[in-house]
Amino acid sequence: MSTNTAQAPSVDEKEVAHFSAIAEQWWDPDGKFGVLHKFNPVRLAYIRDHVCAAFQLDPKAEQPLRGTRLLDIGCGGGLLSEPLAKMGAQVTGIDPSEKNIKTALVHAREQGVDIDYRVATAEELAAAGEQYDMVLNMEVLEHVNDPSSFVHTCASLARPGGLMFCATLNRTLKSFLMAIVGAEYVLRWLPRGTHQWEKFITPQELEEWLNAAGMQVIDRSGVAYSPLSGTWHKAPDDMDVNYMLLARRNDGQAVG
């Protein structure tokens, strides 16, 4: 990890160490990140459909995201970056963990997928003036320091008219029981200590931060688990635990 990366204000070194320790398991559907593998279809469909609707692209095309530039912040092992690159997006994936990026690079090369993976932070890219059509903040906000400032930094990485997708956990009693007690201690979907309930973020807090950063929330949806089918699905009326927000930068509409 570079000195600048380690010193970025959003980086929680304990969180980085936690995920670095299990980085080799990112692509194991039965491993520590198995729940994300099950979660991925609903996340990918949400991103694809909203990007296509916003930028007048064909969601049924072989590569529906061709011609777009996408930044995946906190990309981990590339579980979102890689399939989105296969959809045609020009993907940059960043993570403060060298081990996560190494895992992502190796897997992408094995699959013949071209992705610009970097050991970097949002602060570094913002300082360099980089901007993208879409910025992903998926299951990242609950792991950073000073999330309100982090959201502001990430918003600057969306180009005029660009989109930012956020997915995180609501701070409710239900989320404590399901996302921590249930997922980490009872079902053991995630390693113990993956989440700290006090770092969860309410939708109202996140929307306020996005608005203050010059973004307008244009969609909200909960995500729920179906025990009978073993799958995750959109649940627009249930944002008590997992939820997603989509925001657009106010100062423009076009991608090109």
How are the elements arranged and paired?
Elements: H1 3-7, H2 13-20, H3 34-55, E1 69-73, H4 81-86, E2 90-95, H5 98-111, E3 116-119, H6 122-127, E4 132-138, H7 147-155, E5 158-169, H8 173-186, H9 203-212, E6 215-226, E7 231-235, E8 242-249
Parallel strand pairs: 1-2, 1-4, 2-3, 4-5
Antiparallel strand pairs: 5-8, 6-7, 6-8
Helix pairs in contact: 7-9
Task: Tell me briefly what this model is.
With 256 residues, this protein is α/β, with parallel strands linked by helices.
List keywords for this structure.
single chain; 256 residues; alpha/beta; eight-stranded mixed beta sheet; 9 helices; 37% helix; globular
What can you see in these coordinates?
With 256 residues, the chain is α/β, with parallel strands linked by helices. The chain has 9 helices and 8 strands. It has helices at 3-7, 13-20, 34-55, 81-86, 98-111, 122-127, 147-155, 173-186, 203-212; strands at 69-73, 90-95, 116-119, 132-138, 158-169, 215-226, 231-235, 242-249. It has an 8-stranded mixed sheet with strand order 3-2-1-4-5-8-6-7. The radius of gyration is 17 Å and the shape is globular. The N and C termini lie far apart (34 Å).
